[in-house]
Amino acid sequence: MRISIKNGRVLCPSNNIDDKINVFIDDAKIVSLNKKPSGFKSDIDINAKDKIVLPGLVDICARLGEIGSKNNGTIKDELRAANSSGVTSICVPPDIYPIIDTPAAVEFINRRASQFSQTNIFPLGALTQKLRGEELAEMFLLKAAGCVGVSNGDIAIENTEVLRRSFEYAKSCDLTVFIFAEDKKIKNNGVVHEGAISTRLGLPAIPETAETIAISKVLLLIEQTNVRAHFCRLSSGRSVELIREAKKNGAQITADVPICNLHLTDMDIADYDSNCHLRPPLRDESDRVRLVEGLVDGTISAVCSNHQPVDANAKSAPFSLTQPGASTIEHILPLIMHIKKLGSELSLKESISLVTSKPASILGIEKGMLKENGDADICIFDPNKNTDINKSNLLSAGKNTPFGGWELDGKVTHTILGGKLVFNSD
Hints:
By secondary structure, the protein is of the alpha/beta class. It has helices at 72-83, 103-116, 139-145, 160-172, 184-187, 196-201, 209-225, 237-248, 259-263, 285-296, 332-338, 348-353, 357-363; strands at 2-6, 9-12, 17-20, 23-26, 29-33, 44-47, 52-55, 57-59, 87-92, 120-123, 125-126, 150-151, 177-179, 192-193, 205-206, 229-231, 253-258, 302-304, 378-388, 407-417, 420-424.
């Protein structure tokens, strides 16, 4: 398949490209940027006039349902939703079905993903067997099978000695440890941020120390073991401060933030809106502001969708009994563009890097960039169109979003994966 993309503004943060040039694709690769190759005859011509041509987005944390489920339709829906926002690479945590704690599980997930050929899937392997926090998983074998890092998902390892040993093993395998920081006992049965809103609504609360104490413990173990680590889905301003200080002291760490926590606060829960029941929770306005500041100064390196589709029935109970999660992957790009309207000092190029080159660098993958002879994973974005968010038109199987009714500037018009056109808004 040969594709030509003409007249667009090509923007690639990784290779410092921001120019009106043409892109020519042949056999899954970008064969030329600007000059048409000799004898090139395209099968598909895309006129990108007044549009922005970007690298395919890299989502560093998204869940696609039970990949091992017999219900293929659900997974296909989530990948289609990802394509509609220009996402071509997704990192999935190990706490899915099947749990990614053996090479066989990695092979199974890769095989299932290849059936759809809609998105690149990069799995994280488990730190401990069955994620129980007791015995270490075979990380060396998981890396050999294709895992780009290791994690215990959203399940905290409570035994500090096991956590330390898991870091040492990961270090010996040259693997990045992905940490979702949450102290289970402090969180208790909390469902919202501890503050005035939780008190007014009478909902069980999650203090910020559920996150910050867990981060502090992990940082001390990182200092001891010198492991390379990534903190997933920060939610509090104090966490940003802890990460910033540790980086100044030389720790090999990075961090990301969920897209929802950059735009929403606990005030959005309003009258018990279960679409705002998320994990980590939405915190207050000062936390949101400091998270954005963390993006601006480089403390936070990436933004993730934290996409987790939830069945309608699981969101229809009283708030504290509902399942946390939201369908967010198909609007991540216009939401990234919207951060500028919140008063941030991020340039367009810096904003795009948060969902392309920077998460790709954290994962250690050759994605999130445009270069000759590189993979033809491309997103085309029209800044002059609008994206209206309505649960009725969500492509995801989960029809729950905290952004219902929002109108955002810009819309993804085309997504190309490995030289194949997988989404066309027309």
